[in-house]
Amino acid sequence: MKNLYTLRRQAGLTQQALADHFHLSQQTIYKYERGHAEPDIETLKKFAEFFGVSVDYLIGKENATNDAEMDFTLDEKELVSKFRKLTPDLRLALFAFVNFLTEKK
Q1: Could you list the residue range(s) of the whole structural domain that residue 10 is in?
Q2: Who's near 28: CB < 8 A, 6+ residues apart?
Q3: Global confidence as pTM
Q4: The domain spanning residue 45 has which CATH number?
Q5: What is the predicted pLDDT for the residue at 29?
Q6: Which residues of the chain have pLDDT under 50?
Q7: Which of 48, 54, 61, 87 has its CA 20 to 30 A from that of 69?
Q8: Cβ of 62: how many Cβ atoms within 10 Å?
Q9: Which of these, 43, 66, 41, 40, lies nearest to 53 by C-alpha position?
Q10: How many domains does the chain contain in total?
């Protein structure tokens, strides 16, 4: 997965923090980033949702500029900017909170 490493680093996450969030091993994340192993489609979808990119972008078939990122509103851009300033632990906590809010019906 060509862009997993870049996305993880941009998010300020260690391999271990990302692995913990997805209930994987740090070694698995390492293998994905280095191209020694490939995740199944469900894991790919989860990574794409987590980072807010397409599966195509994750696997290197699409540029970030082709994503919906180009269509962000000013509020969305502000949220992304603030998100990038959070510590890795706070980012994971925020994701858990957002998942909780969006899963409630």
Answers
A1: 4-103
A2: 19, 37
A3: 0.64
A4: 1.10.260
A5: 97
A6: 65-68
A7: 87
A8: 15
A9: 66
A10: 1
